Amino acid sequence: MITPMTVGFLLFSIYPIFWVLRWSFFNYNGYSTPEFIGLENFIRAFDRDPAYWASLKNTFVIAGLKMLVEIPLALFLAVVLNNKIKGSSLFRVVFFLPSVFSIAVVGLIFSILFSSYNGIVNALLRAGGLISTNIGWFSDKKTAMFVIILVSLWTTFGLNIIYFLMGLQNIPKSLYECAEIDGANTFQKFFYITLPLVAPILQLVLMLSVLGTIKMTDLILVLTNGAPGGTTEVVMTYIFKYFFSYGDNAARDVQFGYASAMAVITAVILGIITLVYLRVSRKMQELEG
């Protein structure tokens, strides 16, 4: 009964890992004769390719700034919706709906909304008297990064609301009743009951948010494609463009070997971050216990 799942796991998970590991030691473009070059691809990434590390830095900047807004916002809205306010079911659907949309379609829509010449956002800002000339949202790194974080936040915070709601609904109401009898106010109940009991969900949401942002690819390709001048490139789009003749890399040869080496380095960095996070979380749980 588990044979189909096992075959799928080996074919679509394990085999690609070994495929990437193998070609990371080769100079190979997919059709020519592979040339074994040892650690040359890794040396190139560490010593001669600052653009790769700039894309990795952009990835962590987006992840960090996004989490500062996304996690508190999702938790706040989850607490509000958990109080059975009028129309809460409708709001849950509305907040969750962006998570269902195709990321590529979302990126295309927002690229039109934030267009420098005929975008709706610039039109609304001009109509409100907030700006006198159109803003080139994708012509400056700061504004382009702002749009990326905004769109990424819009597509994912609804799912995090669902996660927090699941945790909130498992908290016994008797705890809040006892706290009210003892004279606890709303803030005290949140910080001493709600927050500690949703901590496991919070840890999960934080990890998923970091991993999801690091794997971000299609949104960047459609929304900015690294513009302006590759300054908004993230690590996965940078690797993608070496695997395929796409965008700024269209004039260059496909480099499976070098792309594989960067993928291995990124996977190792991601694995280290995950292990450190899990270890810190475990230590915090032990201290709380």
From TrEMBL:
Transmembrane intervals: 7-26, 60-81, 93-114, 120-138, 145-166, 190-212, 219-244, 256-278
Gene3D superfamilies associated with the record: MetI-like
Residues of the ABC transmembrane type-1 domain: 56-277
CDD domains: TM_PBP2 (cd06261)
Entry annotated with the keyword Membrane: yes
Membrane association type: Multi-pass membrane protein
Keywords: Cell membrane, Membrane, Transmembrane, Transmembrane helix, Transport
Pfam families: BPD_transp_1
Localization per record: Cell membrane
Principal localisation: membrane
Family annotation (InterPro entries): ABC_transporter_permease, MetI-like, MetI-like_sf
Record family assignment: Belongs to the binding-protein-dependent transport system permease family.
Protein's name according to its UniProt entry: Sugar ABC transporter permease
Species for this entry: Blautia hominis
